[in-house]
Design a protein that fits this description.
Low-confidence stretches: 1-22
CATH class: Mainly Beta
CATH superfamily: Cupredoxins -  blue copper proteins
Distance between the termini: 27 Å
Bound molecules: copper (II) ion
Number of helices: 1
Structural class: alpha/beta
Radius of gyration: 14 Å
Shape: globular
Strand order of the largest sheet: 2-1-4-6
Mean pLDDT: 86
Number of strands: 8
CATH architecture: Sandwich
Number of domains: 1
């Protein structure tokens, strides 16, 4: 998980550089985890955007892709995790601790 965080930070730095060079602005989207739900439950993004999950519940959660492609690991209260979306398509994800918590990210 530490490695992934470093990789993502490098990705964000590259994004900032691209923006300064006149590239398309890449958005950051926030999914709040609250009351055992991902809000918004269905998030629409563009390829290259970043999604940040923030856990505002008092219990830990994860954001874990259904296809195993990514996993936030345990997010305690107040912790966040970010992911750059690099491919188009819809990704379903859930919380490993509470499988009923389900949501999607759709990238175009
Ligand atoms: Cu959970």
């Amino acid at each position: 998980m530490t490695k992934r965080r470093h990789f993502l930070l490098a990705g964000l730095a590259a994004t900032a550089t691209g923006f300064a060079g006149g590239a398309r602005s890449r958005a950051s989207h926030t999914v709040v985890i609250q009351q055992f739900a991902f809000v918004p439950e269905a998030l629409q993004v563009s390829v290259g955007d970043t999604v940040v999950w923030v856990n505002e519940d008092i219990v830990p959660h994860t954001a874990t892709a259904a296809d195993g492609g990514w996993d936030s690991g345990r997010l305690n209260r107040g912790e966040s995790w970010s992911l750059e979306i690099t491919a188009a398509g819809q990704i379903g994800y859930s919380c490993l601790f509470h499988p009923a918590m389900r949501a999607t990210v759709t990238a175009t």
